[in-house]
Design goal:
Layout (H helix, E strand, L loop, with lengths): L8 H11 L3 H23 L2 H17 L11 H26 L6 H23 L2 H12 L4 H8 L3 H16 L18
Helix pairs in contact: 2-3, 2-4, 2-5, 3-4, 4-5, 6-7, 6-8, 7-8
Length: 193
């Protein structure tokens, strides 16, 4: 694997501060990533209380194991999203498996499909929120407001070619949501599982 570019300065400094046990660093980390963590957990689990529990678990893990983040593997944001995603999928799988064992409706295949669907949906949400604002704006106009590329170009004040480029790039990024490994696979910094 090719060596990645050096991580942003904030990520390196935050990792170092967390490793030193600075409580103020955890507060800053929480302020920056709490909505991302809770949103991803809620997207996977579909339950506010369960998402709150995963959020607490993620921040406890960060506090107790700050060295588990390797700045050379990617941005801190991607790492915390991958951690959240993995823990939420594990919780969903455990909860649904327990419900099946207690005689709940469905089958193992339906359970795996439900977990996979929740996983892909959460990854798609993360991709949309992490993409550059110009790409996100173009996709939101096209998807939510049903604009074609000409209308999108006019709304954004860009050329039609630029609007098509933004839509194409945004859709290409979004298509990678389906490329995530199965829920039982180990997490990757690329945001997968």
């Amino acid at each position: 694997m090719a060596k990645k570019d050096a991580p942003p300065r904030w990520d390196r400094k935050m990792q170092q501060r967390l490793a030193r046990g600075e409580a103020a660093a955890l507060g800053e980390f929480y302020d920056r990533f709490a909505s991302l963590v809770h949103g991803l957990a809620h997207r996977v689990l579909g339950d506010e209380q369960a998402a709150d529990g995963i959020t607490r678990e993620v921040f406890a893990h960060v506090w107790q194991h700050p060295d588990s983040y390797d700045p050379m593997q990617g941005p801190l944001r991607t790492w915390v999203a991958a951690l959240t995603h993995r823990l939420a999928v594990q919780r969903l799988h455990a909860t649904e498996t327990a419900a099946l064992a207690d005689g709940g409706p469905g089958s193992t295949e339906e359970l795996e499909l439900k977990v996979r669907h929740a996983s892909v949906a959460a990854r798609a949400d993360y991709i949309v929120h992490a993409m550059p604002a110009p790409l996100r704006a173009a996709l939101e106009l096209a998807y939510f407001q049903r604009r074609d590329y000409r209308q999108t170009a006019a709304d954004l004040g860009v050329t039609e070619d630029e609007a098509r480029r933004r839509l194409r790039l945004g859709l290409q990024l979004l298509a990678t949501a389906h490329d995530a490994p199965s829920p039982g696979a180990p997490p990757g910094y690329g945001g997968a599982a």
